[in-house]
Design goal:
The protein has 3 helices and 4 strands; from the N terminus they run ββββααα. It is an alpha+beta fold. The protein has 2 domains: about 40 residues; about 35 residues, no CATH class. A 4-stranded antiparallel beta sheet has the order 1-2-3-4, with no helix packed on it. Strand 2 and strand 3 form a beta hairpin. Helix 1 crosses helix 2. About 10% of the residues are buried. Bound molecules: zinc ion.
Length: about 100
């Protein structure tokens, strides 16, 4: 299907939190790259009509990947929050381990 700038296509809008009409504002390799919601007029990358994963899902995925790579899930969960920033500032962290 040929897409052209200004074409109206369905996509998921995170602001409207539902599928809405979007106008194509940028094309990449013949398909939509960026779109503008016709309801709230916000621009975003074209999502192929998929809702973005929730933060909960991302966390779950991170834990799953951590398990796959043999990392302790508890350590991985600790590493992706404020704890990681604090730990990074301390030289010689976990010296006792
Ligand atoms: Zn919208």
């Amino acid at each position: 299907m040929d897409m052209r700038l200004g074409d109206i296509i369905d996509d998921f809008c995170v602001k409207c939190r539902r599928l809405t009409n979007h106008a194509i504002v940028s094309l990449l390799n013949g398909s939509a790259a960026k779109v503008r919601c016709r309801t709230c007029y916000s621009d975003h990358d074209y999502r192929n009509e998929q809702a973005p994963p929730s933060k909960k899902d991302l966390k779950k995925a991170a834990l799953f990947n951590a398990v796959l790579s043999g990392v302790d899930p508890a350590a991985a969960a600790e590493a992706d929050g404020e704890e990681a920033k604090k730990a990074a500032k301390k030289p010689g962290k976990r010296a006792e381990a």
